[in-house]
Amino acid sequence: MKVPFVDLGAQYAAIKAEIDNAIFGVIAECSFIRGPHVDDFESSFAGLIGSPRCISTANGTDSLYIAMRALGVKPGDEVITTAHSWISTSETISQAGGKVIFCDTDVETFTLDPDMLESLISPRTVGIIPVHLYGHPANMPRIMSMAERGGLWVIEDCAQSHLATIEGRCTGTIGNFGSFSFYPGKNLGAYGDAGCLVTADAKLAEWCTLFARHGGKGDHVIEGINSRLDGMQAAILNAKLPHLRSWTAKRQEIASRYSVALRGLGDIRVPTVANGCMHAYHLYVVRTQRRDELRAFLKHRGIDTIVNYPKALPFYPAYSHLRHSPGDFPNAYANQSVILSLPMFPELTMEQQEYIIDSMRAFFGC
User: Fold this and answer.
1) Of 40, 134, 268, 324, which residue is most buried, by most CB within 10 angstroms?
2) Does pTM top 0.90 for this prediction?
């Protein structure tokens, strides 16, 4: 049996008529840039997660950069973010003019460690960017408490946490901004690059809209950039949006089945969910000291896996100038050699999942 890591073809087959109608509609209307499909998506997505405003962007990386520009990041400003994630979060801090300050991850949830975070806040700190990694919310109550005490802004990186919640609130609606990616493999994915910001602040939303559209079409109030959501991608997202809740529920069902079957198997550590949180399971990540052996064994059996992410950010050449050592980020450093992402997508069949579980049992001799 072959089991892909993600099967976007199966998702398309399940809603083919809706996707095809969306694409043909854009072509028929020639609404390729901005237009009604984009307006509809901004309104619908904001309503779904409970945010007053949504500003669409060309991709999730742009949305992080735009948010920091809106918040006035300037040279010398320190911005704290997680040591273990995709580089978009940290590289945009540098691009906006700030200085990246890395924080270790929580030992159980892979998100920003609140205890270390507090020790990193300095007079030069202006903001915090927690990443809701793999779909598990960061500890927003503690993060927001520290931010409020220090007069700091917070941008939530929600690239992997569509519809994840903490204390009943969707990720992205708690900080000053929520930044989302709709890269094809995300829980809500376009058929190309796409992203957005959400915020409750009307003035920030207006500035972001201007900045992302060349400073205002027809009346360039400021110098901006070109970060527009294509009409085609918006129409595809509109077709997928009504399915997101059921897809999320399916991910949670698959995750539960994995956890019941794999808990106690060899040295496997399955994901945990913190109190008050709802995990969106963009990724289902286990830990084992035999990670590389297990991955090779599963590949031999036709099962695709991925390591998200194989190296903590401070240890890449791009950040060698910071001169960090493994002891600076013990949890992130330890996790990079033991994490393994198993296949996780709503269309994963019971037969496929049982094959994955049986294969892992065979590896561990159970």
Assistant:
1) 134
2) yes
